[in-house]
Every structure is written in structure tokens, then in C-alpha cells.
């Protein structure tokens, strides 16, 4: 049975590129997100370019039944899931006290709840294999508080802490867990999060989604627990530990203020 990877949020950005990287490495794929047309186009592109099968499952992964539908699909089709990539994620720019609750709730439902639920649902299948992988897309936002994107940053703290904790629990079970931590990256993320007015966009060069995906795939294969993309991001995260937390929090706010 061919090894199959599930990739959430494959209709754009990092997830779209991760799908291509996994296909290039010979994985069959289940790609999922809400926008069906995007997924269908990606399926055609990948199946033309690589000798792999791509299953398209368009759905809103925050609806609890949908995570279960994904598992049902893999069981009914007897698919051999050896990698779960929890990539889908959203953010929201602005002060928490003026924000719309629906957008904060969506961050929690997608970045935290859906990621945790999918991990819980698929772990038993992953643990049956000789070697399996979980790749959770966190962020450099996971390492410090993020005024003006408070819930998003906190959600990525969760992804990092959860990933590291289960990576420890799973020692000896042949399943590794990697938290991929990109810095600012070219994708639809900034538009969806209403970040166009933030200084952050101008201050930091954006990495390409393709480079982040390639790096994430390699880190996952090595079983790295925490994979921070890029030299400057690594340096920055090492440096912030030297400063008081309140100073770092204020600096993050300064960087992110409106232009
Ligand atoms: N870009 C950055 O600067 C950056 C930096 C660090 C970490 N990250 C993380 O990287 C991951 C990928 O983001 P990206 O930068 O590639 O952004 P993106 O281009 O906006 O992609 C987000 C993906 O999530 C999917 N998605 C959103 N809501 C969904 C829902 N309810 N159900 C199912 N799928 C949903 C979107 O597809 P549909 O809209 O079709 O559903 C899309 O495929 C996220 O976890 C993000 O937090 C991004």
C-alpha cells in the first residue's frame, strides 16, 4: 500500500507547496481545505507532474464531524496514512478588545481544536506503521506574546507546546512530531488576517512558501521536534531570551503597529 499524507490547508500558501513537496517525494495525498476548485487544480497539476494519486476532500475542518469524515474516508478506502500535516491556520490583526468574536473563535477552532482533534483521530493509524510523521505548522509567533494578534500568537504557543509534549510521549512509538515555525511568509495569510496596514509586512522580508515547505519536509523526515525556518528567525528567537518578557512584548507591538 502506498504511503499517504494528509495535508490540511492545501488550497494556498505553505500547504499548497507542501503538497507538491510530498508528491515529489512519492507520497499519495489527501488534500483538504474549503475551496474545491483550488484543490482540484492542484490535484491535476500534481497528478500530471508526479506518479502519485491525489484525493481531494473539500471541507471546513473546524466542523467537528468533518474531521471524523476524513478518518472515515481513509478507512473506507483502505489508505495507509503515514503522515499528517496540520497546516491550515488563520490569524486576525488588531486589538483584542475591538475585534470580532467570530474571528477569534475561528482561530481557536482551526489553529487549536481542529489540529488537536485530527492528531487524536489519526494517531492510532499512524502508530501502526513502521515509521510515521506528524508535521504541525506553528510559527515564530509561538515564542513570545503578540499584541495586536494576541489570540493568533497564543494559538501558536499552544501548537508548539502540544507538539513538543506529544513528541516526548511518543518516544519509542515510531511516530515523530515536528513543529514547523516559519517567520513571515508569502501566502494569503496576511490578506486573510487583515495585516496589510501593519508595519510588520514592510519590516521583514517574506520567505517563499516553497522554501518553507521544503525545509519543513526535511525537518519532519529528520524527526526534528522544533524546526524554525531561516537564519535570522533562529537568531532572533535565541536573542529574545536575553531580554525581559515585557520588553519583548512591547517590541512585538511596535513592529506590528499600523503604518
Ligand atoms: N504566512 C505567514 O507569514 C506564516 C508565518 C508563520 C506561520 N504560518 C502558518 O502557516 C500555516 C499556513 O498558512 P499560509 O501562510 O499558507 O496561509 P494561507 O495561504 O492563508 O493558507 C491557509 C490555508 O488554510 C485553509 N483554511 C482556512 N480556514 C480553513 C477552514 N475553516 N477549514 C479548512 N481549511 C481552512 C485555507 O483554505 P480555504 O480558504 O480554501 O479553506 C488555506 O488553504 C498556518 O497555520 C499559518 O498560521 C504562516
Characterization of the model:
It is a single chain. The protein has 259 residues and is of the alpha/beta class. It has one domain (3-256): NAD(P)-binding Rossmann-like Domain (Rossmann fold, 3-Layer(aba) Sandwich), CATH 3.40.50.720. The chain has helices at residues 13-24, 36-49, 64-76, 101-127, 150-169, 189-192, 200-203, 209-222, 231-240, 245-256, and strands at 3-8, 28-33, 54-58, 80-86, 132-137, 175-181, 226-228. The chain has a seven-stranded parallel beta sheet, with helices on both faces. Strand 4, helix 4 and strand 5 form a beta-alpha-beta unit. Helix 3 (64-76) packs parallel to helix 4 (101-127) and helix 4 packs parallel to helix 5 (150-169). The termini are far apart. The chain binds NADP nicotinamide-adenine-dinucleotide phosphate.
- Unreliably modeled segments: none
Beta-strand percent range: 15-25%
- Overall average residue pLDDT: 96
| Domains, number | 1
**What is the 3D shape?**
globular
SSE order in H/E notation?
EHEHEHEHEHEHHHEHH
Top CATH class: Alpha Beta
Number of helices: 10
* Total beta strand runs: 7
Spatial arrangement of strands, main beta sheet: 3-2-1-4-5-6-7
Kindly identify the CATH topology: Rossmann fold
Structure ligands: NADP nicotinamide-adenine-dinucleotide phosphate
**Gross CATH architecture:** 3-Layer(aba) Sandwich
- Radius of gyration over C-alpha positions, nearest whole angstrom: 18 Å
What is the structural class?
alpha/beta
Main beta sheet: 7 strands, parallel
What fraction, in percent, of the residue positions are helical? 40-55%
Intertermini distance: 53 Å
